[in-house]
Amino acid sequence: MKSVISLISGGIDSPVAAYMVGRLGYKVIPIYFDNSPFTAEKNIKRVRDSIERLREHVDIGELIAVPNGKNLLEISKKCERRYTCVLCRRMMFRIAEKLCEKFGSDAIVTGEFLGSKASQTLQNIVVISQSVKVPIIRPLLGMDKEEIMEIGREIGTFGQGIVHAGCCSIVPDKPSTKAKLSVILEEEKKIGIKKVLERLD
User: Fold this and answer.
1) Is the peptide bond preceding residue 67 cis, with omega within 30 degrees of 0?
2) Is the dihedral of CA 60, 165, 91, 182 positive or negative?
3) Which domains are delineated in the chain?
4) 83: Cα within 13 Å, side-chain hemisphere
5) 163 CB neighbour count, 10 Å cutoff
């Protein structure tokens, strides 16, 4: 069976995205980036609860939890603060791409939709996408929040993420909404991306 690596947070959107791709017949391999201490510890419980609800509807594998707090701390210390979210997402996608290689998965799935966060402007999404070669599926991209919440209610995951669980305390006050790839590539030279990816081998 074909599979996808699906980024799952403790929020409302990503479980819905996983469901929408899973119902097409793909096995969903869920990955959670643990950004502790910058996110609530109870996030992981919400993620596990959402996965159990999803299991009633789609073929979903065991959760893979990836420690990401140290990576995020390095980004925040060494790089220009306004690019933190974009740099973090690019790092996460690279790790997800490595997992695609490991499991023979066809694509990465995310719950991004336009305008929901600073990193999710169209320009930033394009820059983030250029961090990997594997296809990125964003089934919620053109939807609004009410539509996403309605699907979440139908599949039983909405209650798990009704609190803004995905909130990250390290998000800058004025995050960049129009990042340029050339600038981001220069910022990435300041951090040890290669070492992070080598640890996954």
Assistant:
1) no
2) positive
3) 3-198 (3.40.50.620)
4) 23
5) 15
DSSP assignment letter at 72: H
| The one-letter amino acid at 155 | I
List pLDDT tens digits, range 114-144: 876 666 889 999 999 999 999 999 999 989 9
The most distant pair of C-alpha atoms in the chain lies apart, rounded to whole Å, by 45
Q: Which of helix, strand or coil describes residue 3?
A: strand
Average pLDDT over every residue of 45-74: 93
The pLDDT mean for the chain works out to: 89
Rounded Cα gap, residues 50 and 46, in angstroms: 6
Q: Which range is least confidently modeled, 105-114, 133-142, 145-154, 160-169?
A: 160-169
Closest CA to 19 of 162, 140, 169, 128: 140
Return the structure tokens found at 147.
């539509």
Bridge pairing between strands 107-109 and 136-137 = parallel
The one-letter code for the residue type at 125 is: I
User: What is the value of pTM for the model shown?
Assistant: 0.91
Rounded to the nearest angstrom, the gap between the alpha carbon of residue 23 and the centroid of all alpha carbons in its chain is 20
